[in-house]
């Protein structure tokens, strides 16, 4: 008992005499409280996962709860596709021929004429940059379908992330979650996995990360981050779910966050939608937390463009 008391005393003394640790703990607690406050009152279910890659500071709120991926599933699809490319079964620059049978909606790819030729690299770019659905389903098929992509996810430590659509045996999950399902933690850590060059190979990870750095839809979480800061991101939205995963190259250390919602009461598609608003609120909160000396603010009137 005497030794235990001495040990506890020394631990407490170390904590008291280490203001950096104490400050870090206080900042983490403050961030946790601020995020909980931001999510309070949201009419639906929300989960958030945040990790500072430099300090290790992490906050997780409903971070291991399953949410619909909507278009964020296009990150795992890209991983499955690059796995095929790495194995030599596809070539990134190979020419593809579009067929009307591939049509899903009238996005850019869906408006191609039957027989039109397009490089696979451009189809991938359209999938990630403008979230083109026809391009994404085409890439999913080329990757070997949802079964092959899910096998890659399992093998690489992402057991809760799954492609449901057009995947045998996943019909019940599709009726509940839609195209895919994941957790805020897994989706954020998948972004880190790619960033750190661990997804498939360093060169494949680098190319995928470049694709994730070209985002057309920048009016929500990205609108709260200075435009000169590099980010890698993917977002997704359906009527009752709005989500975004972002890896921010902040001046004082990279951080990743993923906010996901489901069962939203607000199904509108205006900028003021509660899910879109929550994405902006959380993103702004995190930028201020990790870059407290930044004086940047979104330009007045920016919102009118959307």
Automatic annotation (TrEMBL):
Reactions it catalyzes: a beta-lactam + H2O = a substituted beta-amino acid
Signal peptide bounds: 1-22
Beta-lactamase class A catalytic domain location: 47-261
Alphabetical keyword list: Hydrolase, Signal
Domain of life: Bacteria
One Pfam family matching this protein: Beta-lactamase2
Gene Ontology BP, a term: beta-lactam antibiotic catabolic process
Tagged with keyword Signal: yes
Keyword DNA-binding: no
InterPro entries, alphabetized: Beta-lactam/transpept-like, Beta-lactam_cat, Beta-lactam_class-A
GO MF term set: beta-lactamase activity
Protein name (Swiss-Prot/TrEMBL): Serine hydrolase
Origin species: Spirosoma montaniterrae
Lineage of the species this protein comes from: Bacteria, Pseudomonadati, Bacteroidota, Cytophagia, Cytophagales
């Amino acid at each position: 008992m005497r030794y235990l008391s001495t040990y506890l005393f020394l631990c407490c003394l170390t904590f008291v005499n280490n203001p950096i640790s104490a400050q870090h703990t206080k900042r983490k607690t403050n961030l946790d409280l601020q995020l909980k406050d931001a999510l309070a009152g949201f009419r639906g279910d929300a989960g958030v996962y945040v990790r500072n890659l430099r300090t290790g500071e992490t906050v997780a709120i409903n971070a291991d709860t399953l949410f619909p991926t909507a278009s964020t599933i296009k990150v795992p699809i890209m991983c499955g596709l690059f796995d095929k490319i790495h194995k030599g079964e596809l070539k990134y620059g190979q020419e593809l021929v579009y067929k009307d049978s591939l049509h899903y909606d009238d996005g850019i790819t869906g408006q191609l004429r039957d027989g039109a030729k397009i490089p696979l690299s451009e189809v991938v770019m359209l999938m990630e940059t403008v979230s083109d659905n026809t391009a994404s389903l085409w890439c999913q098929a080329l990757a070997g379908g949802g079964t092959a992509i899910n096998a890659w996810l399992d093998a690489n430590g992402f057991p809760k992330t799954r492609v449901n659509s057009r995947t045998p045996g996943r019909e019940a999950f599709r009726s509940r979650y839609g195209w895919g399902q994941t957790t805020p933690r897994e989706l954020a850590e998948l972004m880190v996995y790619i960033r750190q060059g661990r997804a498939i190979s360093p060169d494949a990870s680098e190319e995928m990360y470049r694709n994730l750095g070209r985002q057309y839809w920048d009016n929500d979480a990205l609108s709260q981050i200075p435009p000169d800061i590099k980010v890698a991101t993917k977002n997704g939205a359906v009527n009752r779910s709005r989500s975004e995963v972002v890896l921010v190259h902040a001046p004082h250390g990279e951080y990743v966050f993923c906010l996901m919602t489901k069962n939203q009461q607000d199904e509108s598609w205006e900028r003021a939608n509660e899910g879109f608003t929550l994405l902006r609120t959380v993103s702004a909160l995190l930028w201020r937390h990790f870059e407290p000396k930044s004086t940047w603010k979104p330009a007045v009137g920016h919102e009118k463009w959307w």
